[in-house]
Amino acid sequence: MTNEPGISPRLTGAKGALADYVIYINWDGFAYDYYEWANGRSGPGTPVLNFLASRGAIFTSARNGFPSITNPMQTSIVTGAWPAVHGNTYRYYDPVENLVKQTGRENAAETIAEAVERSGLSCASVQQFVLDGRGTYPSDPSHLYIQPGGPWRRRLAEAVKILRREAVTAQGGLATVPEVPRFLAIYADDLDASGHNSGIAYGLSLAFSYDAWKSKMVRQLSAMDRDLGSLVDALVDLGIFDRTSIVLTADHGMSPVSGKSSLPDLLATLRGLGLRCELLAPGERAADDTDVVLVSAGLAVQFYFRRDITLTRYDAIIDALSTKPYFGGYMSFHELRKAGAHPDLGQLLIWPRPPRHFKAQGFFFGITGQHDSGDDTSRHVFMLLSGAGVRHGVVIDRPVEIIDVAPTISRLLGIRPPANATGRVLAEALLPGAPAPGLQQETHGQQELLPPASGSPEQQGVRGEQTPE
Ligand SMILES: [Zn+2]
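Above: query sequence and zinc ion SMILES. Below: predicted holo structure tokens.
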């Protein structure tokens, strides 16, 4: 099939490339739990994902960062860096202006698509909106951004048209890519919409109990898995399946939410400690005598202390809250900084134990889902690498992070990582190849911070190979 138009017979690529093409799929809100439920005893399975896993590596301990919210975490995946680096942290309190603010698509770091573009390779994005204008553009067929809308099935159909070099609708008219993009991103939010369970989304109706919600999520995943098969078919048909790596992951998971709000007790507990506190929404300001500003999207609560606070008093807050039945966990300021959170995220973060919540109103009926939490249901995401350059049939239990995705895509394509990336190449999942060019100091520095590898000496050897002195 090497005479297929738009497909070069042998890509010269960058030295050290492990794959000619990389397809990065993001299924927003794909909690790892969903995969386990679907593949449990009475589940329908996910045959296409499992086929890809048999030709690749599945990560059973992939986690996101703080806050566990779409835009900051989507940005972290494509930049390989946490919010402290790229600056997108969603909702926060600005003490100088005494105002609660919210970020949109701010991103101060280079994206993987920009790294691909600047390395001279073609790319495209189907609704991966954090790459819109950031390496892919509505008016540039060589680095095309399109936004077809609709469910996964429809977006995937447009992606397949791009692979087949058929015309697709871009801004203001039809566009045809000049060659099969070396890097193609596809974004779909069907699982996120279903998981929130706040209305009828993409054809699935509301679930009113935890068990019904679980089976709804399994049904949604199963349907998306079925459609994913058409991508495999298209790649086989084009003759590039063996030269393509597929990366599939998510920005966050989903925590079930139901019952009355724990916010009144949280506020009363803080007042009991002598703290005047206020929960503020975006655009709101604190009263002059407020000691603590609280900011929340409903689950995790960010604390902003407006006056100096002693460590004893700080610890007393944590002690008082940690005895509560609704308490799920916390991160201190120091822990948040170590985890790469932006300093604007606050000086203390606490989150509820599912299904408890800190929303302004309770739920007296039914169930919903949210993911702005440090709970593992929100932080544990699905991650899969498959195809060219990837070891086959590998299960990796060692913890990995979503910021490892962009450096790994760079490694597969044989290009330098995004300029600000601090994530590492997931070398334990890759075939040994020629050393990649331009793996820079950040990657090396990050590896030194990681806990000792539990992998085999062979894996350690591969890791070592990635960090030439
Ligand atoms: Zn999301």
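The two ends are 41 Å apart (CA to CA).
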